[in-house]
Amino acid sequence: MRRADMAAGLNSCIFFFLALIFLQCFCGSRAREIADRHGMQMQQTKDSNNYIQNQLNGMLGKHEKDLAVNVFFNEEDLKLGNKIPIYFPIKGPSAKPPLLSREQADSIPFSSSKLPYLLQLFSFSKDSPQANAMADTLSHCEFKPGKGEIKFCATSLESMLDSALNVFGSKTPFKVLTTNHLKDQTTSILQNYTIQDEPKVISSSKMVACHTMSYPYAVYYCHSQESDTKLFKVLLLGENGNKVDAMAICHMDTSDWDPNHVAFCVLKSVPGRSSPVCHFFPADHLVWVASTSAL
Ligand SMILES: *[C@@H]1O[C@H](CO)[C@@H](O)[C@H](O)[C@H]1NC(C)=O
């Protein structure tokens, strides 16, 4: 993928959730509650999959919080011809956080200890939602990785590429996969999508998923877990005719997950070994895989 294409692909929307209408009430208030509990609990949890809740914290408007969206589904839903309601967030150029070059990013401190300075730099008051989202992103990036987990935050494409190179090693070719909207889409809508092809399993000896975080500029939270995951490529057709070549992942063992994770609310399940959580990737999130894996 060319750098310019990648930058354009990377730089789109932030949101990660969609509302299943029938769950909106319950999950909406639940999500708000979670979003309101900044800081402490986030830092205590060992579950790195809580990056998702960071995005809720970054949803500033009441409407967006109420939308309390999700892209979660059960593995058995992933079948040819099946219909799944999905919200793929699309953000206009003015709402996208800017992607910095490595030089620019490296000139700005990226540390919780520098938060007061950073708030001044970006002109956010101490208790603003933006300040909370920034604090939250920094603390996520500063968690120590769990056992068997690799994690890093990247503030530029260059640093993400370098870190990915470290994970795969110089001898393993690797590539990046994203969700692609095959037709230009200008608005985000919640709609049913029909699975057009048999979902393809992408097997890769290693895999690093990178998620956008709420921050004044583009920050990616990247992680790779030893725990059992299945990566899929799924061709979807929306009711409005939009086609999406989507990436999806199933976390097969969620026994380490925070029981308060919004996914369990949406899927009406609890953490466990036989309680997978699957989700689609929004267009600006990335998955790095060994490029020997078949597509
Ligand atoms: C999706 O389809 C189901 C069943 O046909 C329907 O009940 C539901 O309202 C639809 N959801 C959306 C978001 O259109």
From TrEMBL:
UniProt keyword list: Signal
InterPro entries: BURP, BURP_dom
Signal peptide stretch: 1-31
Top-level taxon of the source organism: Eukaryota
Ranges where the BURP domain occurs: 72-291
Protein name: BURP domain-containing protein
